[in-house]
Amino acid sequence: MGYTDTEKLLKECDAGAKMAVTSIDEVLDKVSDNGLKQLLTESKSTHEKLGNEIHSLLNEHGTQEKEPSLMAKGMSWMKTNMKLSMDNSDATVADLITDGCDMGVKSLSRYLNQYKDADHTSKEICGRLVSIEEKLCKDLRQYL
């Protein structure tokens, strides 16, 4: 069965939100600054809430959730652990999450362009996810 552009866009947003939560979980216990820890915890919560909205929309469309690819998760895990083993600092955590935000914005923007026939609601959700990523990236600058 082929998926509509709406379903495809929602699935990619779902995978992106899950990837963000996983990435934040990987580094959260390495953070020493309380402000950075709070920023990441709040962002994780925001991603989870949007993820729940996405899940509801996927259910309405009778479409399954999408997990981030094993390759993406594996590469992220490797990069995170390698960088933190060389420099276990808040600046390294901020750098890693900033890179993830940049990749997320790039990917989601590509999907928005690719799935032009997606409905307004799914495009709006994708736009919100992009905004969350851009805001987190901006807020992390003080920790770089």
> Counting H and I runs of at least 4 residues, what is the number of helices?
5
* Alpha-carbon Rg, integer: 15 Å
What fraction of residues sit in β-strands? under 5%
Helix content: over 70%
Spatial separation of the terminal alpha carbons? 45 Å
Sequence of secondary-structure elements: HHHHH
Unreliable segments (pLDDT under 50, ≥5 consecutive)? Answer: none
Shape: elongated
Account of the protein in words:
This protein is mainly α and 144 residues long. Helix content is 79%, strand content 0%. The chain has five helices and no strands. It has helices at 5-28, 34-60, 70-86, 90-114, 120-140. Helix 1 runs parallel beside helix 5 and helix 2 runs antiparallel to helix 5. The termini are far apart.
Keywords:
elongated; 144 residues; mainly alpha; single chain; 5 helices
Describe the secondary structure blueprint for this structure.
Elements: H1 5-28, H2 34-60, H3 70-86, H4 90-114, H5 120-140
Sum this structure up briefly.
This protein has 5 helices and no strands. The chain is an all-alpha fold and 144 residues long.
